[in-house]
Amino acid sequence: MVGALFVVGSPVMDSCLCLDAHTRSKKKILGSTRKLELGTSFTGSGIVFRLSSKRVPRIANRRSKRKLLIVSEDLAGSYDDTFGDVKTNLVNYFTYKAVRTVLHQLYEMNPPQYTWFYNYVVSNRPTDGKRFLRKLGKENQELAERVMITRLHLYGKWIKKCDHGKIYQEISDENLALMRERLMETVIWPSDDSNSEVIG
Predict the structure, then answer these.
(1) Residue 172 half-sphere exposure toward CB, CA atoms < 13 A
(2) How many Å apart are CA 84 and CA 91, to the nearest integer?
(3) Residues near 50 by Cβ (< 8 Å), separated by ≥ 6?
(4) What was the pLDDT predicted at 69?
């Protein structure tokens, strides 16, 4: 079973660690039928539970003195068939890039329209591209179309320049470097004092 790990009771709840876990016993804990034993150098010791994603928010909202490790196997979804969330994030990012590009163009060519669009972007952040463009189309159809055309152009440019093999290699190299750093942090090196003792 592959799941996601959250540390509840810590000030930061948005970090996630994917891992493999194996069941240990059939003991009922907080509505779960299995207790899991996990071991990793990234987390301290704590109590470990396997829960569905529906239970995680309720437990996360409780104030607890102890840290709990929660494994949820359906929290992030399954990437077997679709990468819909990745596609949505890419589209939203290209909308953001298009807005920045159009702002830069307007700054140089049409300062009054730049001022209006800048104020619009400040009050309506382009985090959700579809909603942002829908609202912009109601306010200023010409600018909305310009952002849509720029977004499509930027995406086409990125596709031509994007080397998927290189990106894969960069991710792999970064993962390896991070694991090396973590290993170097956890290794206990012998001190130099022990080597300088004279045996006699």
Answers:
(1) 6
(2) 11
(3) 3, 21, 23, 32, 34, 35, 36, 70, 71, 72, 73
(4) 56
* Residues 62 and 96: beta-carbon distance below 8 Å: no
Q: State the chain's maximal CA–CA distance in angstroms.
A: 89
> What distance in Å separates the CA atoms of residue 104 and residue 2, rounded to the nearest whole number?
45
Within the chain, how many helices (H) and strands (E) appear?
Answer: 7, 6
d(CA 168, CA 170): 5
* Number of residues that make up the chain: 200
Q: Which amino acid appears at position 43 of this protein? A: T
Pair of tokens at residue 29: 């804990």
Query: For residues 101 and 117, what is the distance between their CA atoms, to the nearest angstrom?
Result: 12
| pTM of the predicted model as reported, rounded to 2 decimal places | 0.53
Element (H, E) at 42: none
In tens, the pLDDT along 20-48 reads: 444 444 444 455 444 444 444 444 444 44
Name the residue with higher pLDDT: 126 or 17: 126
Q: Which of 67, 150, 64 is nearest to 105 (CA)?
A: 150
pLDDT digits (tens, 9 = 90+) for 60-113: 555 555 555 555 555 555 556 678 888 999 999 999 999 999 999 999 999 999
Q: In this predicted structure, what is the pLDDT of residue 83?
A: 82
Count of beta carbons in the 10 Å neighbourhood of residue 155: 18
